[in-house]
Amino acid sequence: MTQDHPPARQLLLCSWLITSAAETPRPNQAVLIEGDRIADIGEIEAMQMRYRDAVLTDLRGCAISPGFVDAHRHCYGVLAHGIPTENAPADFWAFLNEFWWGKIEDRLDHDMLRAAMDLSCYDMIRSGITTFFDCLEAPNAIPGGLFVQAEVVARWGLRGVLCFEATERVSRENGELGLRENVEFIEACRGSNVVSRLLGGAMCHHTTFTCSDDFIRKAHDLARQLGALLHFHCSEGTYEPEQALKKYGRRTIEHYDDLGILDETTLASQCVQLSPDEVRIVGERGIRVTTMPLSNCEVGGGIAPVPEMRRAGATVGLGTDGYVANFFASLRGAFLIHKARLLDPGAMPARDVWQMATADGARALAMDDIIGTLAAGKQADLIAIDLDLPTPVTAHNLLDQLILWRDAVDVHSVMVAGRWLKRDYLVLNADFEALVAGTREAAARLWGRA
Ligand SMILES: [Zn+2]
What we know:
Helix content is 40%, strand content 22%. The chain is α/β, with parallel strands linked by helices.
């Protein structure tokens, strides 16, 4: 669904360039791309003189930024959007045990995963996401669930980290099968072109309330051996720390620390209900965290102490959870929710939000050596956002303007590894009607069986 052969040398012109949220945006810049990488950045006039042979794309009227990193998503979740929950139990454990697990996760099959990933890729490209982390929760779709999803992602040309959430809640054997799915996928991504060089894997277990200590240690050891991340959902609401206190006499993060698994492999998503002591541990261990402000609201989980974790030294990436999947909604959620919680309009400046959405998302996924900022040598993963705004755009207000008053429809173009996936507001080679029809059919089967 991408351009088959992108030109060897491309020169993009823009009105504003955000190389990184940590740097002041620069006006009237050009970006030279050679193959899949950025080769040079500079003033438009000088760059046009220097690179006369490059294929020109004039994006003046737009800001170019590193592409968004959706650092936590469940693409299968699109099939459950709007599913009737009025008869589902309100209590967290009963909701999982009597509704979500049995009626959604356990019933997912390969065709459903394929349809959900297809629409999700379209949707991500549309809203400017160039890299995403997906956590598949479907114990009866293994072996092979990750490979089915990967084929779809490779076809669209997005950059993705895919993992399977191994859990012992079904059985120990199913848990082991989940770990093996991750090992095989990580090795396939590294070993060859079985999937795509844009794809990678991660180790993953569910939580302290569905996995034994032995199982968690095993997942961690496998991640270390493979040099991969270990992802887990952590204290998404009050349930997990309460259970950990009852079972171990300490809270979730304290328990993980006791197990000795908080290190360079750790990618803890959610981290909503943390005590000040847990925030300190998260910072001291320098672990990777992802935050999903809107889905935390949906499940009544609370508001994660994101400014506190960042101050303590954690890397925090921003995700959608695949819930309100438009990334601009997550940007606005992250921008506003901490101001309200801390009664402080300065609690979360626009540059911090943009940083979480790009460079820190890349760091959270251990990919900051190749993506997250725009500089010579980095992968050409970037987006152009239309700046047709009713008020002046300045270096000082650019990020605020983009977060608050732009949306997926304003994303003019999207490039991953030097290939255009969206141009002139159109996702390339996408048959939207067919994608929606495929998702509707899969959702009807899922809901029908539910
Ligand atoms: Zn999640």
